[in-house]
Amino acid sequence: MIPCTKTGCHRWFRNKSGLTQHVNVYHPVLPSVNISVPVEQCQESSAGEEHSQVLPDGYGDSGNPLDDPSNSNSLAEYVGPGDRYYRNYHPNLTGRPCDSLGNFLPAGHPAEPLTDMQPDDWSPYSSRLEFELADFLFTRSQMSAANINELLNLWNASLLSTGGQPIFRDSGEMYKTIDSTPLGDVQWEKFSTSYTGERPTENVPPWMNDTYDIWFRSPKEVIRNMLSRPDFSDAIDYRPFREYESATDSRQWEDFMSGDWAWKQADTISRDPATHGSTFVPIILGSDKTTVSVATGQNDYYPLYLSIGNIRNKVRRAHRNGVILIAFLAIPHMDKEHASTDAFRRFRRQLFHSSLAYILHDLMPGMTEPIVMRFGDGHYRRVIFGLGPYIADYEEQVLLACIVRGWCVKCLAMRQALDTDALYRSREHAEALIEEFDLKNLRDEYGIIGDIIPFTSGFPRADIYELITPDILHQIIKGTFKDHLVEWVESYLKAMHGTAKANAILDDIDRRIAAVAPFTGLRRFPEGRHFKQWTGNDLKALMKVYLPAIEGHVPVEIVWTFCALLEFTYLVRRNVITEETLVTIEDAINRFHKHREIFRESGTVQTFSLPRQHAMKHYPDLIRLFGAPNGLCTSITESKHIDAVKDPYRRTNRNKPLGQMLIINQHLDKLAASRRDFSRRGMLEGSCLTATMQLFSTRDGRAHSNTSEAPGLNRCNEDTDEAVDCPTSIEVHVELARTPQTKRARTVTELAAELNLQHLPTILEEFLLQQLDAYDNCDSDLPEWPTYGNKITVVNAAAALFYAPSDISGIGGMRREYIRSCHSWQNGAPRYDCAFVNTDSGLKGMYGLDIVRILAFFSFVSQSKRYPCAVVRWFDRVGDKPDTDTGMWIVRPAFTAQRRPSIGIIHVDTLYRAAHLIPLYATRPVSRNLKPHHSYDSFTAFYINKFIDHHAFSLLSDSY
Questions:
Q1: Residue 451: CB partners within 8 Å, gap ≥ 6?
Q2: Using 50, 70 and 90 to split pLDDT, how confident is the model at 756?
Q3: What's the pTM value of the predicted model, to 2 decimals?
Q4: Neighbours of 90 (CB within 10 A)
Q5: Which of the 8 DSSP states describes residue 164?
Q6: Predicted pLDDT of residue 119
Q7: Which of 159, 524, 601, 798 could form a disulfide with 164 if both were Cys (CB 3.0 to 4.6 A apart)?
C-alpha cells in the first residue's frame, strides 16, 4: 500500500495511478503563474509597424421518464404559431428576473434601460462617418497601418482646399479611438508554467527547462458580455425544456437546452433550494490546433473557444460572435529524439489539462452559488455555471478524455471490436478503475491513461466522458466518407480489376464529377477528386455529387452503403430532430453496417473497428442528450479559426505575431460591440451616405427619398447563396433580378428568335389567359384574347428567398439562392439552371412539385399589370417513387405528342427554388470533352440531387 504524503491526509492506495488521481483531484498543484498582465503592457504584444499596441439513465429525480410530457412538475407553455408545439420547462431553474443585488422581482416588473446614452451619442467616435470608416478599414478591408496612413493622407489632402477637418490624422489615432471603446473590453492576461517533475542527472531535455506562456481572457467576463448582448435577447433560452408536438405528444430536439443533459444538470443543481429561480448557463468549449503558414517561423497555434448553451444553434452557427476566442494554449515543441518519450507525452497532456483548469478557475464559485449578471433584455438574473460539452475532433477527444488512441472515448467497447455493445464510460467508473489497477492494465484492458487526470475532475457535476460531443465534420464527412469509403472504393476497384483497369474507372469517375452541372454554392471539381489538401467545404461538396458518379462502376451494395451514410449525415444535420427522425437515423446506421460488409467480404478492409466510424452508433443517444448536433460541430470552431487566428496572423508583420493577434482580436471585439450598440439605438439605419444626405436635407428643409434597393438582388453575378437576417415570415418568395439585360431580347419576337422557339407568342398568350383565369371559359377566336405589349424586359437571374434553417442561413432561418438563366455566365459558358415548380400545394414533397429548366427570365405588361415570368422546359418524373438504389427521384426531359420539347411560360410565383440534376451515367463512359454546361443537354435521364443541400434533402425526403 502507498500512502498519501500530503500533510493531514491519511489515505492509502494500492498502486501509483490511484495515488496520482487522488493528488490531482484533492491536492492539485496549479502551474506557476506570473502576475496577470494586460496585453497592451506585454513586451510580446508589440505590434511592430502594424499596430500601436455517463449518459443520463433517462429518468429525472422525480422518477418520471425525461421524455414523459405528463410530468406534473414541469411548467408547460405553447410555443410558435398555431400552438403546434408545446414545451415543458424545468420547474426550479426558471431564469427569474431579479435586481442588481439578486433580489427577485415580481412578475411583469419592467427592466431597467440598458443605457442612458442618447441616440446621437457616437462615443468614443465623433460621428457615424468616423465609426463606419474605422469599422470598414479594420474589420472589412483589413487594411494595413501603412495603407491606412496613405489613404488618410490622400483624403486629408483633399480637405485642405475646403478647410475641412480630417477624420483621423493617421492609423495610430484610429487605433487609439478603437481602444478607448469600453464595450466588449475583456483584457488579455498571461500565466506561465514549466516542468516541475524529476529530471535526469545529465542530458536534460530542453522541454524540461522551457517556460510555457498561456494567454487567456477571463471566461466569466466573456460570458458576462455575451449574456448582456441585446441582439441575443430573442435567441436565448433561460430555462431547460423539453419540446413536443401538440397533436402527437412526440418529442423533438433542436437547441442545446432542449436536451436531457441540461435538464439533468438542473435537477442536480436545484437540490439546493438557494439556486431556485436561477438561470443555468452551460459552458461550451472547443479547441483545435491550426496552422497559419507553412513557410515562415512558428506557424502553429492552439486556440480555445467558448460559447454558452443558452444561445440557440442558429446563432452559434451564423458567425454572430456566439463563439468567442478566450485563450491561446501552449504547444510544447521537441526534437524527434525526445518527442516520443513517455515523460514528454505525459507532460504535454498534463500541460493541456492544467492550463484548462487554470483558465476556467474563475467560474468555479459560480458553479455552486448563484452570481448576478445582466442579460440583453435588460433584466438581471441569478446565474449558475456548469461545464458543458466540449467540441473537438477525435485526436482532441482522446487528449481530453485521457484515452488511448484507437479506443472509443464514449464507451468501453474493446479496441479490436468497437461495434460490440458496451456500457458508457463515466467519471465514477474511471476513478474506481484507476484506484484498482496499475497503469499497464488500465491501458491494455480499458484504454485509460491513468497517470493523467482530466481537467474536469476539479469541477462540480463535470464528467468529461459525458461531455464529448458528436462531430459531424471529422467523424462522418472527413472520416467515414472521405478517409474510409472513398478510399475503400479505390482499393476495391484495384482488387477486383487490377491497377490499370481500376485507374481507367477512377478516371471516368473523376470525369463524371467534373462534368456535374453548376449550382449556386457548389464547389467545382475540374480534375475530379485530385486535391492535395481537402478542406471541409471540399469534402461536403464531394458528398453532394459522388454517389451518381460511382453508380455503374461498383456493385449495388456499395451504392447502398454510400446512400445509407449520406442519408445518416443529412438526417443528423437537421436543425430539428424528432422521435421519428431518430428512428430513421437508427435505420440508416443499421443499413450502413449491413451493406458495408461487401468491403470486408472482398478483402478490401480487415476490420471495421474504426473510432470515427464507430461514433455513428452513439449519435441517437447524443442527440437526446445535447439536442441537434449541428450546433456542436467542429465546423463551427474551424470557421472561427479564419476570423480569430488566420486572418489576424496575415495582418501581422510576423515579428512575435501572437501579441499582434491578441490586439487585433481585441479591436475586432470592440468594433463589433460598438456596431451592436449603435444598431440597438437605431443609429445605423440605411447607409452612411443616405443618413448624411438626410441630415443635410433636413437642415435645408428639403425631403430626401431613400432609393436603396433590397439587399442581395443586385449581386446576381456572385455564385454564392446568402444567409439572410430577416424574420421568418414566409416559406418561399421568388423575385426577378433588378438589372435588365440590354444586350438581350427586348421584344417577344426577339426572344422567340433568341431561344429558337417560333411558337413562343402563342405560349405567352396561353399563359396570360391562365393568369386571367379565363382559359377554360373562353370560346373567342385568338385575336380577341387579351393582348399584351410586345416589349419585354429580360434578366439573367431570379432570387429565391426561403426557409432553410438546416443550411447556412440567417438567425431567422432564411436563405437567399440565385437561379440563373443566361447566355454567358461570368464571361464564360452559358448557364440555364433547373428549378422546382409548385404544381399541387396539397401534396407533400415531390408529389406536389415538378422540375423545369429555365430558358429565360423576363417580364411584360398587360392591361397595366406587370407579369414576372420564366420560359421553361418541362421534365417528367420516372416512376411514382424514388430510385430504390440511390434514394433519389429520376426525371427526364418532357416531349409533346409531336416529339417536340415541352415548353411553357410560368409565373415566377410558382417557382419554389433551384434544383440540381445529375445524369444517370450507368456504365456509359464520359467524354473528356464534356463540360459542366453540356451536362443537361447531353443525357436523357437525371437524378434530382437531394444531397445538394439540407433543404433539398428534407424537401425530397418528405415524399416517402
A1: 16, 17, 20, 346, 439
A2: very high
A3: 0.88
A4: 24
A5: P
A6: 82
A7: 159
